[in-house]
Amino acid sequence: MNAFSSLMDGFGTALTPINLLWAAVGVLLGTAIGVLPGIGPAMAVALLLPVTYGLEPTGAFIMFAGIYYGAMFGGSTTSILLNTPGESAAVVAAIEGNPMAKSGRGAQALAAAAIGHFAGGMIGTVLLVALAPKVADLAVDIGAPDYFAIMVLAFIAVTSVLGSSRIRGLASLLIGLTLGLVGLDQMTGQQRLTFGSLQLADGIDVVIVAVGLFAIGEALWVAAHLRRTSGHAIPVGRPWLGKKDVKRTWKSWLRGPLIGFPFGAIPAGGAEIPTFLSYATEKRLSKHKDEWGKGAIEGVAGPESASSASAAGTLVSMLTLGLPTTAVAAVMLAAFQQYGIQPGPLLFERESELVWGLIASLFVGMVLLLALNLPLAPVWAKLLRIPRPYLYAGILFFAAVGAYAVGGEALDLVILLVIGLIGFGMRRYGLPVLPAVIGVILGPNAEQQLRRALQISDGSVSGLVDTPFSVSVYAVVALIVLWPLLRKLAGGLLKSRRNVTE
């Protein structure tokens, strides 16, 4: 009941005219940027983060929530229309959505995705309201060893489920951890990797890292392959769903959150795993097996609902533990830090009005998202006709302006270009970007918690595993690390038994 009354107070904050305006502007901007090919939610949020700096915190985060959900929907629109996923979580939408678009059913695919985002987001946010305060209460008792164990779990989980190999995931994480070392040591005040530059003493701003890795890296990558790729918009009509489509998709919309929300709330790499699991589930339960791979609408509705619910689940760990499990959450954490606010167990007490206003704005933003994007889908399709040289030139311009606005230093532009070249190299050699961003965000915090835990135990390593919680988390870490080996051994045993029986 306490959470319900707090949510009602949050609606009182979110439904003021000025905050409604910020929510609408956020949804519109997020969708407009996210719908452009190759951008995706993380890059859209990073590009638009400087736009919120001039606002007071509550209005800024309400606008930010609109950008978040709007950009998520935009990423799936690109995936469906152009077979160009803006992020890895939108890959599944292309499997069935793009064949639907090619067969003239792009409108239905976009409508199924929009309603799926709405249903998944609504259910996920209801679960966020119910669970986040309880998680925050439990998190108050978590000590330094437990926090370090959780961050190790985040590092291992993210590097294990993303990329073509674990080695590449770990290499990306190492890049992020190295970038996170730049600046003054938080405990001793010693300079690290500053090369004698006073501007680097405060470290590299996370926004510059995110914009550099995502926007600059992607723009350079596309420019390098521009002559070999081409894209054209597929015209779509008025989005609508017939009775037959609704009958096939309503169960998928409701099943998606049950898969997406738990994976979003734990450090398991965000929406990639639940969208694939949702796709596999819908394919197994479908009565139209012959349509899969050719444009089965359930293959769009279920994964998109799971993806949106996963985004709500991500906010549970980000708000209550200060633990970003996706690149978008990492950029959002940077936005909190920009205002001097540290997400964690005490956030619901210290910044109650802001947090509940933000959660209430998620409901408002999803209603606005559905109302805007169902009729505006043909407009987003026309935006995709922008020639790519002009498109990415604009991205580079806004990225540079945003990076310069962070600190007002010309050196920030040099750092942005260097990090952009690193992002280009990561794409060239197949390194996933998310572990690097997670490393930059969590690296300094993980180091601090590690040193605190060792100080408490007088330098004994056993101090890292002296609580039941930390032991449980390390057991999960061990399972993730050893799972491929255990699965291989189990497969070998089954194969040998079959040979014996034959």
TrEMBL record:
Annotated signal sequence range: none
Keywords: Membrane, Transmembrane, Transmembrane helix
Statement: the UniProt record of this protein carries the keyword Iron: no
InterPro entries: DUF112_TM
Keyword Membrane: yes
Stretches assigned to the DUF112 domain: 20-437
Transmembrane residue ranges: 20-49, 61-82, 109-132, 144-162, 167-184, 204-224, 315-336, 356-377, 389-407, 463-486
Protein name: Tripartite tricarboxylate transporter TctA
Gene: tctA
